[in-house]
């Protein structure tokens, strides 16, 4: 009988500590290290049963700095050449939108790499804090499964988008000998288009890391909601005294404070990337729709064969933004869930001492709102959808009217000039 008890305790311990945070973050952190986003690795495997440890890998830190420096030089040189040369005969009509579009996209990729590395220590501590917080084993397993499925989904979307860039580079290769005869045209070479397709992976990996952290924080809030509901139910039924409740109200307040701290750290570490990504997606969406609407006019930089490329690019970037909105909405909902449990509880059936504790806890949580924030400039959520759609439509209409007006002015001015000379 003693052996059976020990076996049961051993089995219970295994279920308690599986899967650990390191197992859930393994794939995400591997991609972050490979693409220079953040050089975090899991610590000693022997500590996984007690507390997952994370540390900064000096090897991948040097590798990440080298990757950032090389891509930064590339991203600065090519736009610098374009700005130095100015509009050329082959790209006069598209020079401004192409230049700004490339600069915005490159800046977004560079920001995702550099900003995350600056906050590498804080991110490492954030992973450890999330690992030490109480959580459900089922939720951790669901988190691991959700991340694996989401990585596969993002990978498929990126491959489709990258294929569209390869296709455009293939089309541009036929025009190399005809148009790209000067170093001023280097930013439009097929190789440059190919590299821009590769650079999309940096914001994509950043997106995976933010997604994992948001889902982990949501799982902690969800577990806290279940504990709050259990605490109120036990107190209401008077099965135990308040001090004997499995999860006391004081512990609930402490857990909520720790999870909220993790959310604030997430906003500090990833706020700048979210802000730059939102601005980049807003402009690149307008840029892609603008180029798509003009792609029926045949030229080297705009033709009907490239129309699908702009649709795929706009959908890929908008997908990132829409998912950030969804994550923001989920964080806001689960942040308020423990408070909603207390508000919906029947306080009259609780002991007087418990009533005072619940009211105190409600006052602590009331008025606070958890959000996925971009440098406290904007809060990610579905409430951004209407302003973004309005801005895209407004600026797209203005750009198209300006383009049509310029074309009509050219058609009117040319005959007048000819008539004056004749």
TrEMBL record:
Keyword Endoplasmic reticulum set for record: no
GO biological process assignments: sensory perception of taste; signal transduction
Entries under Pfam families matching the protein: 7tm_7
Key words, A-Z: Cell membrane, Membrane, Receptor, Transducer, Transmembrane, Transmembrane helix
Protein topology in the membrane: Multi-pass membrane protein
UniProt cross-references to InterPro entries, sorted A to Z: 7TM_chemorcpt
Cellular localization per UniProt: Cell membrane
Coiled-coil regions, chain positions: none
Segments crossing the lipid bilayer: 150-171, 191-217
Annotated family: Belongs to the insect chemoreceptor superfamily. Gustatory receptor (GR) family.
Cited function: Gustatory receptor which mediates acceptance or avoidance behavior, depending on its substrates.
UniProt-recorded name of the protein: Gustatory receptor
Natural source organism: Popillia japonica
């Amino acid at each position: 009988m003693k052996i059976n008890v020990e076996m049961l305790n051993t089995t219970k311990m295994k279920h308690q500590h599986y899967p650990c945070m390191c197992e859930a973050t393994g794939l995400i952190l591997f991609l972050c290290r490979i693409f220079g986003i953040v050089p975090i690795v899991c610590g000693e495997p022997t500590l996984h049963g007690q507390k997952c440890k994370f540390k900064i890998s000096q090897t991948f830190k040097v590798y990440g700095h080298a990757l950032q420096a090389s891509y930064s030089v590339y991203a600065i040189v090519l736009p610098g050449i374009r700005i130095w040369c100015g509009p050329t005969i082959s790209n006069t009509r598209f020079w401004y939108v192409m230049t700004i579009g490339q600069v915005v996209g490159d800046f977004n990729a560079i920001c995702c790499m550099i900003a995350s590395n600056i906050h590498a220590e804080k991110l490492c501590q954030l992973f450890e804090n999330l690992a030490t917080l109480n959580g459900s084993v089922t939720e951790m397993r669901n988190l691991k499964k959700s991340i694996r499925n989401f990585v596969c989904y993002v990978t498929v979307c990126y491959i489709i988008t990258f294929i569209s860039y390869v296709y455009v580079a293939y089309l541009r290769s036929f025009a190399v000998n005809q148009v790209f005869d000067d170093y001023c045209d280097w930013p439009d070479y097929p190789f440059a288009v190919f590299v821009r397709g590769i650079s999309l992976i940096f914001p994509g990996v950043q997106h995976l890391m933010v997604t994992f952290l948001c889902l982990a924080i949501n799982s902690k809030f969800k577990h806290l909601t279940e504990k709050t509901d259990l605490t109120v139910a036990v107190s209401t039924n008077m099965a135990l005294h308040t001090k004997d409740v499995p999860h006391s109200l004081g512990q609930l307040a402490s857990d909520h404070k720790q999870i909220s701290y993790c959310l604030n750290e997430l906003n500090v570490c990833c706020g700048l990337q979210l802000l730059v990504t939102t601005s980049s997606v807003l402009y690149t969406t307008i840029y892609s729709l603008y180029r798509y609407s003009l792609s029926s006019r045949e030229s080297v930089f705009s033709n009907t064969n490239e129309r699908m490329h702009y649709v795929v690019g706009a959908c890929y970037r908008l997908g990132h933004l829409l998912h950030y909105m969804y994550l923001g909405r989920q964080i806001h909902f689960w942040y308020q869930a423990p408070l909603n449990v207390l508000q919906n509880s029947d306080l009259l059936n609780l002991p007087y001492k418990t009533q005072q504790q619940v009211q105190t806890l409600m006052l602590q949580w009331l008025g606070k709102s958890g959000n996925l924030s971009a440098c406290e400039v904007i809060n990610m959520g579905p409430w951004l959808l209407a302003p973004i759609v309005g801005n895209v439509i407004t600026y797209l209409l203005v750009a198209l009217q300006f383009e049509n007006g310029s074309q009509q002015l050219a058609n009117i001015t040319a005959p007048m000039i000819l008539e004056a000379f004749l």
